[in-house]
């Protein structure tokens, strides 16, 4: 579905990203991890064609990403950026309908299918009861759910999300990740997701990619990536690791720095 070879990005006279080789297979959920400033958003921007790479290349379904028109690309890839939706003057339903723009031409606005898809997405995301409300009236977490619903209405083959759970409480974090997982298994959706929560990443992702200072430290199944050595290397903290009692994936426990004995 998505492939990067020796990908690099430069800005302000330095390399933000270097030598990234990555392959995301159809139907996989791949998590991108790394400390603040390690290059996760830069990687996402280059992989989705928002930024042009300065070295290497990105291929989407075998074709170079820069050969797609924006509308062609939007029928394959939906992106949920890190910046939340602002307090724009639209209703929830209107924002979700914006997700249908790649399927509409100048001459044909919304069709019956566009309405059906939007209704189904509003119901699946629990937004149906608030569909007539103005976005400006919603909480940050509710607005985030609307943003996710808009990407779902786009019916992409590849969904790219940059920290989608940031503003959500634990119930809504799980609800959104469960919804993504259901969508992945029922429709063969491919997901690339930046997550700060290592435990959720281990629970939901098939594979993980760990970045440090713009380079890939390691990639692989959660058990291979979330190890004491790798976490220490990437984040500079020493975690306690245990295995999740039912899911059998690694889980990270943090501990305060020990005070020196006087
Ligand atoms: N347009 C830009 N010009 C110059 N430097 C940039 C630009 N955008 C990002 N950077 C720098 O590139 C590095 C990686 O930034 P990026 O946003 O990709 O990190 P991140 O891993 O997503 O961080 P966070 O977890 O804080 O969101 C940072 O040092 C950042 O300051």
UniProtKB/TrEMBL annotation:
One GO molecular-function entry: ATP hydrolysis activity
Species assigned in the record: Thermoactinomyces daqus
Keyword Lyase set for record: no
N-terminal signal peptide: none
NCBIfam families according to UniProt: PRK13548.1 (NF010068)
Protein name as catalogued: Heme ABC transporter ATP-binding protein
SMART domains: AAA
Domain ABC transporter: 2-238
Keywords from the named record: ATP-binding, Nucleotide-binding, Translocase, Transport
Coiled-coil region(s): none
One Pfam family it belongs to: ABC_tran
Domain of life (superkingdom): Bacteria
């Amino acid at each position: 579905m998505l492939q990067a070879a020796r990908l690099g990005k430069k800005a302000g006279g330095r390399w933000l990203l270097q030598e990234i080789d990555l392959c995301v297979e159809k139907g996989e959920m791949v998590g991108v991890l790394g400390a603040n400033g390690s290059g996760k958003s830069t990687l996402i921007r280059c992989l989705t064609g928002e930024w042009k790479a300065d070295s290497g290349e990105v291929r989407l379904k075998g074709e170079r990403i820069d050969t797609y028109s924006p509308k062609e690309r939007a029928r394959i890839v939906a992106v949920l950026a890190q910046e939340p939706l602002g307090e724009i003057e639209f209703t929830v339903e209107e924002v979700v309908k914006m997700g249908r723009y790649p399927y509409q031409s100048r001459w044909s606005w919304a069709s019956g299918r566009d309405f059906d898809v939007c209704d189904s997405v509003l119901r699946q995301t629990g937004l149906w009861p608030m569909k007539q409300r103005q976005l400006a009236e919603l909480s940050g977490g509710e607005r985030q759910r609307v943003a996710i619903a808009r990407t779902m209405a786009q019916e992409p083959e590849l969904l790219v999300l940059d920290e989608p759970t940031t503003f959500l409480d634990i119930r809504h974090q799980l609800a959104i990740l469960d919804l993504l997982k259901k969508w992945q298994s029922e429709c063969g959706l491919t997901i690339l997701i930046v997550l700060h929560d290592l435990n959720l990443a281990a629970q939901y992702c098939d594979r993980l990619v760990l970045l440090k200072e713009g380079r890939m430290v390691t990639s692989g199944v959660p058990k291979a990536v979330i190890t004491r050595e790798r976490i220490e290397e990437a984040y500079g903290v020493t975690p306690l690791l245990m295995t999740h009692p039912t899911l059998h994936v690694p889980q990270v426990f943090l501990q305060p720095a020990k005070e020196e004995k006087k």
